Amino acid sequence: MSGGWVAIVGLGPGAGRMMTPEVADTLAQASDVIGYLPYVARIAPRAGLTLHASDNRVEIDRATHALELAAAGGRVVVVSSGDPGVFAMAAAVFEALEAGPAAWRDLDIRVLPGITAMLAASAAAGAPLGHDFCAINLSDNLKPWDLIERRIALAAEADFAIAFYNPRSRARPDGLDRAFAVLRDTCRDRRPVLFARAVTTPEQALRIAALPEARGDMADMRTMVIIGSSRTRTIDRAGGPLLYTPRSAL
Amino acid sequence: MSGGWVAIVGLGPGAGRMMTPEVADTLAQASDVIGYLPYVARIAPRAGLTLHASDNRVEIDRATHALELAAAGGRVVVVSSGDPGVFAMAAAVFEALEAGPAAWRDLDIRVLPGITAMLAASAAAGAPLGHDFCAINLSDNLKPWDLIERRIALAAEADFAIAFYNPRSRARPDGLDRAFAVLRDTCRDRRPVLFARAVTTPEQALRIAALPEARGDMADMRTMVIIGSSRTRTIDRAGGPLLYTPRSAL
């Protein structure tokens, strides 16, 4: 029982050069790594390390498994892409902790942050999140779609830049088009929309469209979508456009 | 003229273990480091490296200086705490770029992300940003205070968790109390408010207060404030409370 711990870590957006040393050191001490298959695939196998890869949509099972292994003395690392606290495994582990045996609350549990996708996408394009902004998960697995639409409309009314996580899924192919329709109703301008695919990987591709021309099929499951605020600007350059939101709203 | 570049980098929240290898490698190649004095103080001096530390509120001068040095062949790193794209130097550099000589647009300019303060604060406390959230800069240097209040009210209406950057300043000691008043009017519940001071440094201190009891003087200039959504929960433990927002809003 003694000596076990759980570290819920963020691997960053993809490139190894963006994983923090804290996360790398913690992975080096692990007995078990738990996570969604494509994220576990980023961890190099070694003697003494068991890799537990699971399918998507079983976050609570995965979280419970991590806590059970730690309670039995395991040095358990739960991996997410990006940051573990942003639409990722940290909340799932705490849900499992709250629902589980009281003894689990004595476990050593740490969350180690990572570079979340919107920061990597923003950096790749310039600085579209340079003024007030929000992050909305477009997946409607765990919330009603009308709440998502209401939240998008209020975010546009507040003139936030908006980062959409999980903009597309096989189960809900029209969600992003419906989100753009809400934005067009609320915004009525030509603000830029960034489609940032597979950021920091060799497949990275950036595309900018004005809101009236933005379409759901410009994104896939590896795309981060960032909608500018009313003040977001584009600087044209030979090397490709830069997108940024000025600091001032005066 | 040839060979110059500008990298606008995030040093992370404070601890060296949270700076990405990409940023560390880029600093090792720099001829010049430019930034606000306490951030430049985090860079080790070495032969061949000139450190340019400046006071706060001169971001545009600093950004222009960086572009001038790069145009003259310098390998220039502009440093921010946290992430450079979140209420930091990246937007200032692009403002200076847009206002400057056309030739500057041919410069090699990169933004290298870092762990922004809200991610580090969230990780230290649990996962309060585990569902939709927003980030609002409470500084009214560059926007009117009534816009800040309107944005806070809309964010609460959308039921975002809310991260406040720059919650207090000497020039505006009552801003955070006014922000809490707006939230109390809109929310009318006892949602938790996290005060996370000097996160990841030896002076780290976390405090949680229910919204009705939250006061502006619980924060100082080194504090990140995160207000939970209506669903944010606290798990009591011998080792200190954990704060998290469940993934589901069903």
Structure description:
- The structure is a homodimer of 250-residue chains.
- The first copy, chain A, is an alpha/beta fold.
- Chain A is 28% helix and 25% strand.
- In chain A, the strands form 3 sheets. A 5-stranded parallel β-sheet of chain A has the order 3-2-4-1-5, sandwiched between helices. A 5-stranded mixed β-sheet of chain A has the order 7-8-11-9-10, sandwiched between helices. The first copy, chain A, has a 3-stranded mixed β-sheet with strand order 6-13-12.
- The first copy, chain A, starts with a strand and ends in a 6-residue tail after the last strand.
- At the A-B interface, helix 1, helix 4, strand 5, helix 5 and strand 6 of A face helix 1, helix 4, strand 5, helix 5 and strand 6 of B.
**Which geometry of chain A do the CA atoms define?**
elongated
Low-confidence region ranges of chain A? none
The overall pLDDT average of chain A reads: 96
Share in helix of chain A: 25-40%
Biggest sheet strand line-up of chain A = 3-2-4-1-5
Q: How is the main sheet of chain A built?
A: 5 strands, parallel
Q: How many H/I helices of chain A?
A: 7
**Helices and strands of chain A, in N-to-C order?**
EHEHEHEHEHEEHEHEEEEE
How many E strands of chain A? 13
The protein's oligomeric status is homodimer
Rg of chain A from C-alpha positions?
20 Å
Classification by helices and strands of chain A: alpha/beta
Strand content of chain A: 15-25%
Largest interface: A-B, 78 and 78 residues
Give the CA-CA distance, first to last residue of chain A: 58 Å
